[in-house]
Each structure stands twice: as C-alpha cells, then as structure tokens.
Amino acid sequence: MSVENVLELIKEKDIQFVDFRFVDLSGRAHHITLPASEVDGDTFVNGVAFDGSSIAGFRGIEESDMVMMPDTESIFVDPFTEHPTLNIMCNIFTPDGERYDRDPRSIAQKAEEYLQKSGVGTAAFFAPESEFFIFDDVRFESSMHTSFYSVDSDEAAWNTARKEEGGNLGFKIKVKGGYVPVAPVDTQQDIRSEMVRLLQESGLRVERHHHEVATAGQGEINFRFDTLTKTADNLMKYKYIIHNVARQYGKVATFMPKPLFGDNGSGMHVHQSIFDGDTPLFYEKGAYANLSQIALHYIGGILYHAPALIALTNPSTNSFKRLVPGYEAPVNLVFSKGNRSAAIRIPVAAVTPKGCRIEFRTPDSTANPYLAFAAMLLAGLDGIKRKIDPTALGYGPFDRNIYELSDEEKKEIRSVPGSLDEALDALEADSEFLTEGGVFSKDFIDNYVAFKRQEAKAVAIRVHPHEYSLYFDC
C-alpha cells in the first residue's frame, strides 16, 4: 500500500490516532501514538523518533536517539481502542539513516534478501502454530522472602471439588484430556471465535481453532502462511488480539511455554517451505514423504544447527521446562513423516505439491518471531548450500514412536540442549551460518547472548519454592 493510500484510508475510516510500533529483542511490541492530524507524507519519510536507551538490549544512553520508519504494508485498524486508531509496524534506523543491526524486523527482511541473492528461491513461507492458555486468575511473586505462582481456570482438572462456583457444574478437562472436546467440556468456544473474528477483520486468513491437549484452557488458532517478515508481523498481531480479547472476557491469555507442571506445554510449531516464483521447491513425487533433495538438505541444516538455533527459537528458561520427554515435546533431533515425536515432522495428509512443507516442532512463543524465522531460514539455506544429508548424519527418517523406545535406544538419538545456558553455549560455538550475507551481525549475536545470560542467571540464583519441599528439613 502506498503512502497516499494510507493517508486516504485515515480519512476514509475517520482515524483519529496512528500507532507506530516496533519490536524489542525479546519480541515484545512497543508503541508511540500520534494524532492523525500530525501524520502526513513527511512522517513516512522522516519517521518517528524514540529513546533507544529505554529499551532493554538496544542502545546506551550516550547514543539513545533512534528512528522508527513505518512500513505501509503492515497496517491494520486497532479493534480495541475507543478512539479509531491505525497500527503500523516499523523498522528501526539510526539518526544517520542506517538500518539498526539490532532491529529484529530488519534482520528478518535481510534474511529474505539473502534468500533471493542465494539463487535458491525467491520466497520462504512460514506458518506458526502458536498455542496458548486462557486462565481465569493468575498471581505470582518473587522477592527476598516470598516466591510463588498460582493460576486457576474454571476448566481445570484440580477444580472438580471446588465449592465457590455456587454448585460445581463438573465437566472439567482431565490432565492431557483437552484435545478438541465439545461443550460443555470446552468452555472457550465463543472466546476463540471472537478472537478469530477480530483476526479476520485485521487481515489474517484464519483456517481453524480448537481446544488443545492440556487442562485449564489451552487453545490454538491457526492462520494462513505468508512470507517471512509478513508472518512475523501477523504473529505479533495474533498475540496482541488474543491477549486483549481474553482481557475483554475478564480472563488472561499467556503464550508461556510451560505455565503448568505435569501437563502439556504450549509450543509454536513452524511450517516452512521455499518457492522459486510459483514453483514449490520442497516437493518431489514418490520420494520419501514426497520431499525433494532441496527439502532434505534444508532439514539437514536445521537439525545440524538445532542446538544453536534453539537459543533463538526457545529463548527462555521456561522453554526448557517444556522441552522434557513425556509431554509430546519435540526434544528428539530427527525427522519423520507424520510423527509428532520428532523435532521435524513432514505433514503427509491431504498435502498438494504447493502445500509440501516441513514442520519444525521444537520452537515456542517466547521466541522473537523475526529472529526465529530468520535463523531457521539461514540454517536451512546453509544445509542446502553445504548439501547436508540428514540421513547420513543419523537424523532419520525415524518413523517409530520415540517416546516408547528403551533408554538404550534413546541414547542413539541426539537431543535438544537441556537449558538456556547450554543453548547459548551452542550459539556462541556455532553462529557463522547466521552471519552469512550480513543478516545477523557479530555485535548482535554477542549482545543477544549477554542479554539472555542475564535472564538465565536471574532464575538460577533465586530460591525455588520446591527447594523447600526437598531441603527445608535437612
């Protein structure tokens, strides 16, 4: 959409405010709002200034001036503001007009540019399945003398005996028993449908929604694939709408990977493929799972670089509470067709040549989508460039249920790192594939690792409530 068309839309929709947004290192959105009367063609040329030193992981106070440059292809009308507001995603530039190399959105765009220059294809398509919980109550505290969290849900298995409901209505969801039940077990049909309605109004093509496996209100909404940066924009929009619809219903939504102990966590399975013009490059009829050699090499790149990748696709200490065996978590670095116990699954049901794709099941939604999608693409392209054969490296195909293997058999299968620190160690040891084409800078990687080390340390040095259960009577 041209600048002129955006300005015309502002008049046509009687927009009163324009919200300029950018994304920080952790993947959280920030915004500055201008009255629509202050927005004209020059705004899209000169951008909107902000203080980069106030954003964690960005700039020092001595070099804090930064500029948001709006992308007119990313606009949508905010469905929650009382005053009509147009939202626009922005890239970040320095005052001298240079792309800021720590801007996640610019990194995503550079990854797309690198793909086009590589000669492999013209576009990479991504489709994340970002799961979430909707709770009725959440409380937590972490201080010198207190540390706890408590969440509650009308659907939760632990509430079968609760009296506060004014007569318990039963039909609670059992642990690991929440996959696609109908009402009255699924109490959140209307909430998810309202989320879908607003997602559609904001421009997303939504394919379906349903309750997910865990108790206590786990859900999933799937929206249609798009190119890398657009999909990351769409995921930011998706999370914004889900968070705010839940709030309108007096509930709270979270994309935290493991908010509950003892039940399934929330992942972000990422479907991906590469096209050259209109030609799908991952399809070869009659081959294993109808996968082309390019697709197999792409898989090889992701599995080979997976320990380093996970520092970007699962970048929280909580991520590794989900990445444990026994809860459908894809901790096994192998590929397989239709097998959900593998890190990479190749969907085979009702798949057309253009729909042929791989699904990397390990990531979660604490990931910054711009960084995670860019990193996955670069790992896959490195696999294509180097012709990394996943079968020769022992990554499969593995068409058995890995969860049912003996401990001895499991020893032969490479697993994901066991902690955020281990993943960061892997990223420090294996980052050259990310710096190809100048997509990620060495400065960015060093800064990112230091930023995430602080998070890991903050959790590691704090007293954990379960330690009282284990050690208080020593």
Topology of this structure?
Elements: H1 3-12, E1 17-23, E2 29-35, H2 41-46, E3 48-51, E4 65-70, E5 76-77, E6 85-93, H3 104-118, E7 123-135, E8 137-142, E9 147-152, H4 189-201, E10 206-211, E11 218-223, E12 226-227, H5 228-248, E13 252-254, E14 268-276, E15 279-280, H6 293-304, H7 306-313, H8 319-322, E16 335-337, E17 344-346, E18 358-360, H9 369-386, H10 407-410, H11 420-429, H12 432-435, H13 442-460, H14 465-471
Parallel strand pairs: 1-6, 16-17
Antiparallel strand pairs: 1-2, 3-4, 4-6, 5-6, 7-11, 7-12, 7-13, 7-14, 8-9, 10-11, 14-15, 14-18, 17-18
**Top-tier CATH class of the largest domain:** Alpha Beta
Query: What is the count of β-strands?
Result: 18
Helix content bin: 25-40%
Helix-strand category: alpha+beta
**Shape category:** globular
- Count of runs of 4 or more consecutive helical residues: 14
Catalogue the unreliable spans. Answer: none
- Which CATH architecture of the largest domain? 2-Layer Sandwich
- Measure the end-to-end span: 67 Å
- CATH H-tier superfamily of the largest domain: Glutamine synthetase/guanido kinase, catalytic domain
Which band does the percent of strand residues land in? 15-25%
What Rg is obtained from the alpha carbons, in whole angstroms? Answer: 23 Å
InterPro entries: Gln_synt_N, Gln_synt_N_sf, Gln_synth/guanido_kin_cat_dom, Gln_synth_cat_dom, Gln_synth_gly_rich_site, Gln_synth_I, Gln_synth_N_conserv_site
Enzyme class: ligase
Pfam families: Gln-synt_C (PF00120), Gln-synt_N (PF03951)
Catalytic activity: L-glutamate + NH4(+) + ATP = L-glutamine + ADP + phosphate + H(+)
